[in-house]
């Protein structure tokens, strides 16, 4: 089944429905909530970076291995990866369409999952196994 191409007249008419309203709303809310939580986590991240400035490796492992530091950093990594995926989605939607867009979104999603999973695994290893 072929989709009707979206024309300028369709976009200008407020009664016309195009796109998925629920998906767009979810994308909008996710982008705003992850952005806001990134701002909240920024203070914590700055504290950790300043605490680790000039420290040697055993001190860094001790700080990041603390559950009160490592687990929030793992949560931050997941939130940043979600925010990164959504930001790249906006860019991909603007410049690519059809099958190429789907392929690039798949690669974008896999890359973000890989980044988040690697970082979280490293932090969990430090927290639970030193």
Automatic annotation (TrEMBL):
Question: What pathway is this protein a component of?
Answer: Carbohydrate metabolism; tricarboxylic acid cycle
Query: Which CDD domains does the UniProt entry name for this protein?
Result: SQR_TypeC_SdhD_like
Q: Where in the cell is it found?
A: Membrane
What is its cofactor? heme
Give membrane topology per the record.
Answer: Multi-pass membrane protein
Is Metal-binding included in the keywords of this UniProt record?
yes
User: Where is the chain membrane-spanning?
Assistant: 33-54, 60-82, 103-128
- Keyword annotations: Electron transport, Heme, Iron, Membrane, Metal-binding, Transmembrane, Transmembrane helix, Transport, Tricarboxylic acid cycle
Q: What is its main location?
A: membrane
Under NCBIfam families, the record lists: succ_dehyd_anc
Task: Describe the task this protein carries out.
Answer: Membrane-anchoring subunit of succinate dehydrogenase (SDH).
Q: What quaternary structure, including any partners, is listed in this protein's UniProt entry?
A: Part of an enzyme complex containing four subunits: a flavoprotein, an iron-sulfur protein, plus two membrane-anchoring proteins, SdhC and SdhD.
User: What is the protein's name according to its record?
Assistant: Succinate dehydrogenase hydrophobic membrane anchor subunit
Q: Which organism does this sequence originate in?
A: Devosia oryziradicis
At the highest ranks, the source species' classification is: Bacteria, Pseudomonadati, Pseudomonadota, Alphaproteobacteria, Hyphomicrobiales
């Amino acid at each position: 089944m072929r989709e009707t191409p979206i024309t300028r007249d369709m976009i200008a008419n407020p009664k016309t429905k195009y796109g998925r309203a629920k998906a767009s709303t979810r994308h909008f809310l996710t982008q705003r909530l992850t952005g806001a939580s990134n701002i909240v986590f920024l203070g914590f991240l700055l504290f950790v970076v300043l605490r680790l400035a000039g420290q040697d490796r055993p001190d860094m492992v001790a700080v990041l291995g603390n559950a009160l530091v490592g687990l929030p950093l793992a949560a931050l990594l997941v939130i940043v990866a979600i925010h990164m995926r959504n930001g790249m989605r906006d860019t991909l939607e603007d410049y690519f369409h059809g099958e190429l867009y789907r392929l690039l979104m798949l690669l974008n999603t896999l890359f973000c999952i890989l980044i988040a999973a690697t970082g979280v695994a490293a932090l969990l290893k430090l927290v639970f196994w030193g």
